[in-house]
Amino acid sequence: MALAKIIKYEGDNSTFVWKSPIEDFNTLSQLIVHQSQEAVFFKNGQALDLFEAGRYTLETQNIPLLRRFLNLPTGGKTPFHCEVYFVNKTQQMAIKWGTDSQVQYMEPTYKFPLQIGASGEMTLSVNDSRRLLTKLVGTESSLTQSGLIAQFRSYLMSKIKPYIAATMQSAPYSIFEVDAHMDEFSSALKRALTPDFNEYGISLDKFFVTTIAKPDGEAAYEKFKEIHIRQYADIAEAKLKQQTDVIHAETEAKKTVIESQAMATKRAQEGYTYQQERGFDVAEKVAENEAVGEFTNMGVGLGTMAGVGGAVGGMVGGMMNDAIGQTSAPAQSTGGLDAFKMKLEKMKLMKESGILSEEEFNAAKQELLKNL
């Protein structure tokens, strides 16, 4: 049997730790360590030298901690039990995790007790080979992803559930908004869990929460969910109504401008102004409701109505001529103070409408006073 042997890694990439079946090796044996690996020598269960990537001839010169155990005087054979563990330091991705029971906490926004579950994926790698071997591996011949999670599950659950409750309870968002804050939630849990993984020589490189199991159908949850949705629906509806009212007001304003421009064009074409149009409306109303013959008793003649101007003035003047021709009763026929007040009010209305000037109004008032 050859005294010198070749010791190398023969596991797969999903294995964290693999123990070489070659034990009690002799001096001058060859050790091959691949990239992203480390090899740790054990003697009687005690971790000694650690080798990084490279090829090594196992001699007492490059294994200082084994010098006293490799017995050259006995022909290169060691009388001590020696082992080599290979540690895979590549990132182990897509490792599943999930809570094994519901996590209860007080919902921070709406203040009601709530139970949720969570699951996701994580990426792990070894950052301290000695610590991992001494704390988790022991005398096992290998440690796979599933083996690591199986050994680590109870410890992980004891840590992650309080972290989930604390993170959700102190979060600035409610359970109904957590889906939009998954990255934030995942980062907070990763920060909390990192020291716990480091304690076992494992680096928590990535940590993702992909699912939050909510208590759909539970009465309290559904009640506050409806309140939450209604709150934002009312706000959205109010904003929409406000925008609609603004659009309506702008439309009405533009409509008024267009109508005003059309009326201004029409007046310009027919030869009268807005003031003249309003004066005509007042005169027409007075003529319709009262005896137009009374205008003659107030000293209002055709000259006054001609102040309306243009076509409208002619129309009003004609109307007044007809009224004068059809009315023969003197002003005194109405008699009394009430008739005087009524005529005076009509004169004021005509002055305010621009039909009578200040001088004409005063002259007509004097005429009324003479007839009292």
TrEMBL record:
Chain ranges of the SPFH domain: 29-216
Domain SHOCT: 343-369
Recorded superkingdom: Bacteria
CDD domains linked: SPFH_like_u1 (cd03408)
InterPro entries according to UniProt: SHOCT (IPR018649), SPFH_YdjI (IPR033880)
Protein name: SPFH domain-containing protein
